């Protein structure tokens, strides 16, 4: 809000109006959980929803970070396998059993990544 006497000064508006919304105990718990998941207070969360703003989700960001970490792990494992396949002198001591173990780790990592992606889609 702009001060009428001095237009260069911007006054901060106070939110002094309150709305009362009756809810069931289960609804209250769910609203509080969703607000927490979004990293907002209940008031901020409900205000954003009521005004039609999209509510950001902290959980989605955590899932994206998890996917990025898994993707980086897969890249590192792929690099190790490439090194082994090129018969690099640094990998002479790595046998087939180590390669198979590395491939198993990659498969497990892919499975974990798929689980995270499926949860993200929900």
UniProtKB/TrEMBL annotation:
One of its GO terms (biological process) is regulation of DNA-templated transcription. Pfam families: NikA-like (PF21983). Gene3D superfamilies: Met repressor-like. InterPro entries: Arc_rbn_hlx_hlx, NikA-like. This is Conjugal transfer relaxosome component TraJ. It comes from Nitrosomonas ureae.
């Amino acid at each position: 809000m702009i001060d009428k006497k001095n237009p260069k000064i911007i006054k901060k508006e106070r939110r002094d109006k309150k709305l009362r919304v009756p809810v069931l105990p289960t609804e209250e718990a769910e609203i509080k959980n969703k607000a927490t998941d979004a990293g907002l207070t209940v008031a901020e969360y409900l205000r954003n929803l009521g005004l039609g703003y999209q509510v950001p989700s902290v959980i989605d960001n955590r899932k994206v970070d998890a996917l990025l970490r898994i993707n980086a792990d897969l890249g590192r494992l792929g690099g190790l396998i490439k090194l082994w396949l090129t018969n690099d002198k640094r990998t002479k001591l790595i046998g087939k059993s180590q390669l198979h173990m590395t491939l198993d780790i990659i498969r497990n990592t892919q499975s974990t990544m798929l689980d995270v992606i499926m949860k993200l889609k929900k």
